[in-house]
Amino acid sequence: MVRMGPDVPLLNEYKQEFFWKRFPQTVLGGPHFKLGYCAPPYVYVNQAVLFLTPWLLGGIGTLLCQLQLLEELHAAVLSGMLMLGAAVGVQALALYAARRNGTVERLGVPNILANEEEVEFTHCVGPETVRFIAPGKRFGLNVVLHTMLAGALCGLGTWYVLLGRLTALYGSVGVALVVFVLSWVTLCTAEYSLIVNTATETATFQAQDTYEITPLMRPLYILTFIAVDLADRFTDPVPELQLTSQVLHVVFLVLPLLWALGMLSPLDALLLWGMEQALVFGLGGSPMSSNLRLLGMFAMSVCVTVCTFFIPSTLGVVFFSMAMGFLLSLDLSQFGAHCRGGSRGAHGDSGWRRGTSPAPPRWFGWQLGCREMLLYLGLLLGAMAEAGLLHHFLSPSQPQNLARGPQAAVSYLLLILFIICWALGEIQGAYVFGGVFLNPLYPRGMANVRVFKQRGRGLHVAGAIRRVLLNLVSPFAMIAFLTLDGSVQQLHTASLSVGFTRAFRVVWQSSEEALFQMVVVVSVRLAAGDTRLPGWDSLGIGVQLLLVGLLSDRLLQFLSKLKFALAVLVTSWTEKKQRRQSAGTLLALNASLCPLLLSVVFLSAMLSAPLLPLFTLPIFLVGFPRPQRSWPGPVGTACPCPDSIYYQQMSGSLACALRSAFARGSLGSLAPGSHFLGRFQDRMVWIMILERGYGYCTVNIKGLELQETSCHTVEARRVDEVFEGAFERPEWLGLNQGLNLHWGNALTPCAALPVRVYSDARNVLSGIIDSHDNLRKLQADFLKALVWLLLRNCVQRHKTFTWGTEEGTGGKGRKSQSSHFGQSTVTQPAEAVMVESVSSLKFRRDSSSLTSFGVWSDEDDLFGPQPARRTVVLVSTEAQLGQTVLHTGPSLPGSVEMDSLFENMALSSLQPLGLGLGLPAVDKGRNPEVPPTESSGTLAHANFSCPHTELFSLPPGWRTAPLLPSRLQQLKPLFPEEWFRFTLGQLALSIQDEASEDVTRALKEDGGLKDLHAQVALSCLISLGAESAFTSPSYVYRVYCGDMPWTEGLEWLSENKELYQLALKAFRYSFKLLFDQASLGPMESLEELFSTLEEYERDWYIGLVAERGWQDSVLQEKPFLFSLGHDLTMGTYTGRVLSLQEQLVQVGRLNGEGVRGQWANLSWELLYATNDDEERYSIQAHPIMLRNLTVQAADPPLGYPIYSSVPLHLPCF
């Protein structure tokens, strides 16, 4: 994202031409009357004839009916049969052209210079012409179905727009003629889209129409209009129905305009939206986290409502409605998983066990167990007992005044509960009164989590009280209010059955909203006093609550959409980078057409449809109604990258923190469809509420990209400012300073949540890695670390052998201490210690990744630092991971290296694959400089003086380095004998439980053991090319990355995979020692060095960011991680340290309607206008609307979050 500002085009020139070719097709239903090239006239004539064919065939029936030669029904049947024959002819031509065209395509030679859409026409009915005009159907079933539907649509449409019918409706022949002509335009667009060529609809929900559902969209809308007219024809005269028919005939004329504007939903979105609205407002349920769950819950809820209608006893209705409402409001996925696999799999559908998040905690509510079952059973039995007793002893037979009777006391109790719960919930967040004023009780200005928790204990107590009142007290009070209402005795009507079923369900499904709705009903009754409200009172308490819930939801939507519209309007002028040349004109138009703007906002709120700002400009349209999730695909799709693991790691801890915040009310109302944004360092977390029930809430957690693009940085900076204004102000503020200065922003801060997350610190190593003193110490530290790892490897190998023997003999054995010895032996995956696998190389993006340039030169930094390259050692290592043994070949000075199919492998490294390419042969069993008798012999066989020494012996293959003994003898003074004896004494105690001081002393005095370890350690030192000293930072970096230049012993070292891993780990440990000593001071004793190395092994992962082991360590929550990187642009070396600790993640609520509106525009732009330009105006940074972040958070393929969890079910008790 480079270009920013108002001069960014809405559509580039190519897309503008494409759009103006596609839009007329959408308006007319599919004809290609605007092409980008010259076409013969018969192409346009053929399309015009096909477009007008339904009108001509329908006109025949209409004419015969007007001449009274046929009855209305017979005229409609005749038109339908004629259209059926025409549709069969079109489909037969399309099938014939498809077969002929397939033959031509196989024999012809494609013109690679021709435009992709250009067609070479040869004849008016040639195969290419027919194929262009009528492409045909992909499925045979659709051929039959669409053909039959085309005939039925023409026949019924003829009946619908007969002149006699229209004249009877409007009483005027002139009006009837106008309606007749325009109505046939609507019918022709639908017929053409159905049978000839389907138009690309503006209202697109699915990215691909796999099953050809789009052609059915327009016909089914028309059939809905016809159904209302038929009901008016064949029923007794009903004024309301006749008025509806008149209005729909007028709306019928503008259907092509509504389709072109994208206001009418596609069939799949319409079905899901209809079920969701009916489930929430008619049946008392909640939007669901998946389409399958929505379908299942809708079916069960409808069955419960139908059963309620047929239960004869009012007491039975109360019991059944309340019990089923309670059960359906629970997290049914827990019960399903519990039945399938027991309590261990209680969250099998929630994503905790799918590898995308850590395992759920074992606290109350996370998994379905005995405690949860007892609580649910106790609540259900208690509620049923309360309802039964109240209904039997206190329920009135007739409706009575609220001021008298037992229901009055319950009404006042509901008022008190609502006020207390609202007050306790309001003080939980950073702002009060709709985000206008700062909350003086909320702790601020504290970065320390422990202090923050201490200062917030009072709010936690208040939250606990609110939780008890809302989850335990309020449901029983509301059940008492419903049971004592007189309308319970009149349940045997459809409206009252639906109302009471919904009321008893919503008490549990959403206790907070149900309490508010009952308080509104109580307030209306109290305000009316003794005055009867006939229209209101006759509805019954259930229908009253239904209407209050529907109206309150639409009112909140209207206010949110109005705030979003005002933000778009105002910022289009006040934000200089958003001010386009047309900004003044658009503002003037919106001001002059203010009633129209309010009507658009009102209509979108009534339909629960998104308010679509075209190109995010102040040009507002009503988007088509769609489910709250906004996207058709399953929740959890993302565009993963290496940074995804950081979000995956924190998602589990964040879910626990969200659970506490939801229970306390810190984040406000938890209506499904709510969006929250979390911020910590460079991480952005997008949280969406998918589903809400009694005691649980389903969320989706998304992680946004960590790349600091210009647009991302601008909006992230504003997010930081908004959070700083809420959480980092002084404790006591004056009234003028207690206001929310960012109230107009789409983000309203709510709370700071303590989350276990990795804190990322990066340091420039200038003065450390380039210090000659430090480099001289690196050699000694390397030998000490390698000696420690060799001895520790012996200990681990002995313990593994001992435990394996015990298990083999039938004993229980001991659990492996992976936390202490998990990374030092061959049992650990090689990629966790050494170098990354081939598949991980493509994810290298940051400065610490390896770059394959493969340059042979001395390490003198004459031309600057050299990037690490992919060497033969890496190839052989990856071969080991792939279960293929590869041997190494030398990389010769002056050899030509080039990129290849093996991803940056040098040609010299292809020798192990059988591709010698002229390289010199290598005798692997002989070193030309070392005679056979001198390279083996005493070095291969060690003589030990202590019988316990065999425990610390090394494998024979590690003793046969092809090096001159004189060369090893020359370097023997470098071996740290004192450190060897100290480490040997410390580790001997861990494997010899009965070890005495004599045994330990004998081990230390065994010269053969010391010589063996000295030989292996010094051989590794020579093989790494560090027998003199580490000479330059670039050399250190290359060895750290596992990219060693060719040395005399490198082949031997790489063949011993386990030893190579230990040597590489020892070098990385030694560099970490260098880093720590340069920062904190030198080690003062051997004990301190020993404990430091133990800490590295236990609590640290020291490697590269691109390695698989790094990712595994993050997911396993290693306390610390360290990586060495190289910034090629700055020419500096960097150290990166990740430390796992509890930090405060700041969370704020986003304007949900603003998010839905921007996502609706994104869907329109990418799926219809195909405006995928990465620098388009609608994706540019907007610090008020957070436009760039909102686009990122959309589901793929339109958005690009790098992490998205599956639906996570959080307990909210």
From TrEMBL:
GO terms for cellular component: membrane. It comes from the Eukaryota. The chain crosses the membrane at residues 49-69, 75-98, 139-162, 168-187, 250-274, 294-320, 374-394, 414-438, 586-607. InterPro entries: Pecanex, Pecanex_C. Keywords: Membrane, Transmembrane, Transmembrane helix. Residues 1037-1205 form the Pecanex C-terminal domain. The keyword Metal-binding does not apply. The keyword Membrane applies. It is a multi-pass membrane protein. It is found in: Membrane. Residues 803-826 are annotated as: Disordered. Pfam families: Pecanex_C. Belongs to the pecanex family. PANTHER family: PECANEX (PTHR12372), PECANEX-LIKE PROTEIN 4 (PTHR12372:SF6). This is Pecanex-like protein. It comes from Coregonus suidteri.
